[in-house]
Amino acid sequence: MRPNRLREIWQAGGAVVNGWLAIPNSFSAETMAHQGWDSLTIDMQHGVIDYQAMVTMLQAISTTNTVPVVRVPWLEPGILMKSLDAGAYGVICPMINTREDAQKLVAYTHYAPQGTRSFGPVRALLYGGADYPQHANKTIVSFAMIETAQALDNLDDILSVEGLDAIYIGPSDLSIALGCKPTFDDLDLPAAQAVDHILARAKAHGVVAGIHNGSPEAALKRIAKGFQFVTIGSDARLMAAGSQEILAKMKA
Q1: Chain mean position to CA 18
Q2: Of 171, 181, 229, 174, which Cα lies nearest the Cα of 202?
Q3: How many whole angstroms separate alpha carbon 51 and alpha carbon 252?
Q4: 46 is catalytic
Q5: For the whole model, what pTM was predicted?
Q6: Phi, then psi, of 250 in degrees rounded to 5
Q7: What confidence tens digit (pLDDT) does each residue in 7-32 have?
Q8: What is the pLDDT of residue 233?
Q9: Which residues contact 130 (CB under 8 A, 6 or more apart)?
Q10: Region 170-174: what's the mean pLDDT?
Q11: Which of 53, 55, 124, 218 is deepest in the core (most CB within 10 A)?
């Protein structure tokens, strides 16, 4: 089975630099993938991407060594299994608030006896290889998003679930949950303290910690703290920022 470079980078003690895809287009996904991102996450929760567009984007990413990841809309077995069957090598699931939620996430993303994932890796066999069924459980990466006050209360219970590979912090949702302004980088003190706490507990449990960032500077600081999966921007934001830079110079 094709190795998962996320696991290889983590085992070497490194950090994954992840890009974000919100535009439902295979050419834009292919263009992003050829820039050298370690991984790219197709956002089906807040982006404007449907399942069919996601499949074509996974195909486009496959023209490179970039690892394809999908953020599913919700903790629902159908979309998790279909994303993996389509060839995603990692899935990020939002709003994991309890130990039971985390157990369901692990079950839905692993074949028996570890889980309850239904068998039908139609495109995953093409991407991962003929021996995909034998090695998928140890290759695929499952991220639980930690972004609510309830998740903070249940943090150790969530992190102790066997088979959970990583957690992913949504700073904006976490900030809102704690009564702070929603942002990625310059967090209000309660949210910043919560992020540090989540990171510390993830390290204690041997679970990889990831987080969304608004700038490379913030991502580098968080890598220095111990985060091993950092997202910087999205295709839509990068396109807008590049356009604004050009237009500001032209209009000046």
Answers
A1: 8
A2: 229
A3: 43
A4: yes
A5: 0.97
A6: -70, -40
A7: 999 999 999 999 999 999 999 999 99
A8: 85
A9: none
A10: 96
A11: 124
- Segment 111-159, tens digit of pLDDT: 999 999 999 999 999 999 999 999 999 999 999 999 999 999 999 999 9
CA 124 vs CA 3, 39, 119, 139, 221: distances in Å: 13, 17, 11, 12, 35
Q: What is the dihedral of CA 197, 198, 201, 206, to 10 degrees?
A: -150
Arithmetic mean of pLDDT over the chain? 97
Residue 181 has, within 13 A of its CA and on its CB side, a CA count of: 5
pLDDT of residue 152: 98
Q: Are strands 229-232 and 67-71 parallel, antiparallel or unpaired?
A: unpaired
- pLDDT at residue 35 greater than cutoff 90: yes
Q: Select which of 34, 46, 135, 212 is catalytic.
A: 46
Contacts of 138 (CB under 8 A, 6+ apart): none
Asked if residue 113 has a cis previous peptide bond (ω within 30° of 0), the answer is yes
User: What are the structure tokens assigned to 16, written together?
Assistant: 């994954």
Nearest Cα residue to 66 out of 94, 92, 42: 42
Cβ contact 218:184 at 8 Å: yes
